[in-house]
Amino acid sequence: MPDRLRVIVWGENVHEHKNAIVRQIYPEGMHNCIAAGLREDRKLEVQTATLQERQHGLTKSALAATDVLVWWGHAAHGRVADKVAERVLSRIWEGMGFIALHSSHYSKVFKRLMGTSCSLTWREAGERERLWVCQPAHPIARGIDRFIELEHTEMYGEPFAIPAPDETVFLSWFEGGEVFRSGCTWRRGNGRIFYFRPGHETYPIYFHPIVRQVLRNAVRWAAPEGKWIDRCPNVPIKKARETLTQKGPRLHKEGEAGFR
Hints:
Number of strands: 9
Helix content: 10-25%
Largest sheet: 9 strands, mixed
Distance between the termini: 33 Å
Radius of gyration: 21 Å
CATH topology of the domain at 5-115 and 181-221: Rossmann fold
CATH superfamily of the domain at 5-115 and 181-221: Class I glutamine amidotransferase (GATase) domain
Structural class: alpha/beta
CATH architecture of the domain at 5-115 and 181-221: 3-Layer(aba) Sandwich
Number of helices: 7
Shape: elongated
Strand order of the largest sheet: 2-1-3-4-9-8-7-5-6
């Protein structure tokens, strides 16, 4: 792991401009609040980007210089350009870490990574949430007690239409009785992915010190372990490790890139 991890916190930055309650809680924007929590770890080099910027702030050069991308979205998933979403996916397959927060379960990037609808049940009642730590020894749960208690949250409930996680780090219970897999990990290509449920925009959840600690832990866990370049080269017969002769019909010319 490098001495300093380069992180981008991406926020769609819509509710902060349209909703007075959200603007009062997050006057600098949710993305800046999340970034401030990450900067409490001095070994994290944190920048922000938003939907409104050119190419949503996620240019090819910006992503090439990013180790971990933290994503918050809710009301404008469809406004994210397909080209940018594909660019993010390519970097994840190469090894960039990806952390999807709260309603980012419906983002283009996360749904593509999961290959499912990522649907769930939900309710806005300001109820209590208790996130139980399922794997106390997991790096993302480092320094966390048996559970995290949030006084007021939006409920997300099962069934959560995702592929079985590699690991379930947190499991939520809500005051209304529902449960939810609130902290899940996967590997896709060479990239590590973490989904973390808390973070509804009308509650000050990203100021919570333990939530901030989870996010700092998650960024460190998601750090790249190396870079894998996604390509599909044609290996000519003459470059095979063993002696080969052509034995059947050939659809493509020798050395031709037939899939791209």
